[in-house]
Write the structure tokens for this entry.
Amino acid sequence: MSMAGNLRKVTGLDRVGGLRKVARLARRRPRVDLSHPARSPLGSSVVNCVTYRDGVRAPGGRDLVDAVERVRKSGDGFVWLGLHEPTDQEFAGIAELFDLHPLAVEDAIEAHQRPKVERYGETLFAVFKTVCYVEHEELTATSEVVNTGELMVFVGRDFVISVRHGRHGSLGPLREELESDPDQLAKGPSAVLHAIADHVVDDYLNVTDSVQSDIDQVETDVFAADGARADPGRIYQLKRELLELKRAVVPLARPLLDLSDRPMRVVDPEIQAYFRDVSDHLLRATEQIAAFDELLNSILQAHLAQVTVAQNEDMRKITAWAAVIAVPTMVCGVYGMNFDHMPELHWQFGYPLVIGVIVVACVVLYRGFRRNGWL
């Protein structure tokens, strides 16, 4: 039976002595190295499982249960388990092994949560919204600009479990960066939590910088010579995408303040100072998003004003031409009433005179409107 079978069997065991029973069951089966990215004995959701001692990756070759037992027996180091969109069955044994709260497990599996930090006994549960910028050649009214996902992190005294939802936000590069700084990683699971929070917030800043390029392009198009013809749908699309980014960034402010100010057993006091730095970066991203929202409102109002001005100019041209055409219409209407006695009706030069008067009047009106900018 594989590790998946072992952990599924755990769910049927009593909690008393649960870890030792799981360990005995695991010893009956061949060991599997979870650190190998191509192997997933717990299911396809397992990305990686590594043990760290004194900030250094411990040698692989052991399964999850064995790694947890060794860490808890020695009282040194911690296990970092990475998962991607696990199912209920895949997560059941893990939740039993680490004694995770059912409410936190439900949130981690179903996702669609607001950024938050909650404490369940000795375990800290954090939810982050991950974001990425969607590259596009040209911004349209239907372009996807920001794509969001979720990242849940369970932090205990001797373990870190990261659960990722979405096609982006991989923690592989972050893991390598942490392993290159053993002194920081030696501070325990809270160092991993800080690194994840810092990584997520840095992505926020990168996305806001990319969104600014789209906003600059829209602003240039709106204030161009033919800005009234610009598609307002692009502005609304940017506002919708910016709202999605805002929903990911703004709610994270309070959880980061709690991590930086409130004493927590699983958070090293030295790490709390680092969380303050992450909170400052988040504040910068929040201010940028608020500024972008105001700027888009101004751009939209400017575009609507340009459309109104263009419509007024069209109406002035129509009105001016209507006034010019009204002169011959009025004269021709008068002489078309078929009265017997009308001035100059039987005069030899009456027709050329009327035509001349019409032409002169139309030319005078045209020059007057042109001089006033109506034509």
In short: The chain is about 55% helix and 15% strand. Confidence is low (pLDDT under 50) at residues 1-43.
